[in-house]
TrEMBL record:
Family annotation (PANTHER family): 2-DEHYDRO-3-DEOXY-6-PHOSPHOGALACTONATE ALDOLASE-RELATED, 2-KETO-3-DEOXY-6-PHOSPHOGLUCONATE ALDOLASE
Organism expressing this protein natively: Mucilaginibacter pedocola
Family membership noted in the UniProt record: Belongs to the KHG/KDPG aldolase family.
Gene3D superfamilies attached to this UniProt entry: Aldolase class I
InterPro entries reported in the protein's UniProt record: Aldlse_KDPG_KHG, Aldolase_TIM
Organism lineage string: Bacteria, Pseudomonadati, Bacteroidota, Sphingobacteriia, Sphingobacteriales
Stated name of the protein: Bifunctional 4-hydroxy-2-oxoglutarate aldolase/2-dehydro-3-deoxy-phosphogluconate aldolase
Subunit: Homotrimer.
């Protein structure tokens, strides 16, 4: 099982956290291979369909066999049972759209990184009480960098990652980093429905390289 600090350090160094779900297992594995080839060493597969667990196991197998140094997390975890199930399947870290005490407990038991989703200062405060070292601002397109700028003094030292609607363009990414985030989550803006359905792996490769470069320039 992955070391909590190593996973967090990799997210901070990488500056982006790619995330996606797709029903087709073969395409899902190929997306992960493409991300790895572009330089990604930590990513999140999301628990958003009935195929998620089976696909996750296949991706994990490919990661273990082909992609040294890759950390694979599971997202959209809302219950303790879901958390336990995916830990058993080999998840390196847990991501939630909400703050749930049962998920926090599972993460604590396994000494895993847990990234809960928060939208208000109260939720952030509760997440901190559950020892969340990295907090997801979600949905980022609703909150915006101005929200991050407004709360950073209230929660000094807390690490934040916005997810949901972050654009792969210099002004958007640099705006987020200026506001005080440590990384950005990239879902459909990077791994779009078109990329998945049309298997546009070379486009994904180029966009991922670009996103990684933009983040390094913005830090």
């Amino acid at each position: 099982m992955a070391n909590k600090e190593q996973v967090l350090d990799t997210i901070l160094a990488q500056g982006i956290l790619p995330l996606f779900f797709y029903e087709d297992a073969e395409v899902s594995v190929e997306i992960v291979r493409t991300l790895y080839r572009a330089g990604v060493r930590v990513l999140e597969y999301t628990n958003r369909g009935k195929e998620a667990l089976q696909n996750f196991r296949l991706i994990k197998k490919a990661v273990v066999e082909e992609m040294p140094g890759m950390y694979l997390g599971i997202g959209t975890i809302k219950t303790g049972l879901e958390a336990e199930t995916f830990v058993d399947a080999g998840a390196d870290f847990l991501v939630s759209p909400i703050v749930d005490s049962d998920v926090a407990l599972v993460a604590a038991n396994y000494k895993m990184l847990w990234v809960p989703g928060c939208m208000t200062p109260t939720e952030i405060h509760i997440a901190q009480q559950y020892k969340a070292s990295l907090i997801k601002l979600f949905p980022a397109n609703i909150l915006g960098p101005a929200f991050m700028s407004s709360i950073r003094e209230l929660f000094q030292g807390q690490l934040f990652i916005p997810t949901g609607g972050v654009e792969i363009e210099a002004s958007n990414i640099s705006g987020w980093f200026r506001s005080g985030v440590c990384a950005v989550g990239l879902g459909s803006k990077l791994i779009s429905k078109q990329v998945l359905e049309e298997k546009l792996y070379e486009q994904l490769y180029a966009d991922t390289v670009k996103a990684l470069e933009l983040v390094q320039m913005s830090k």
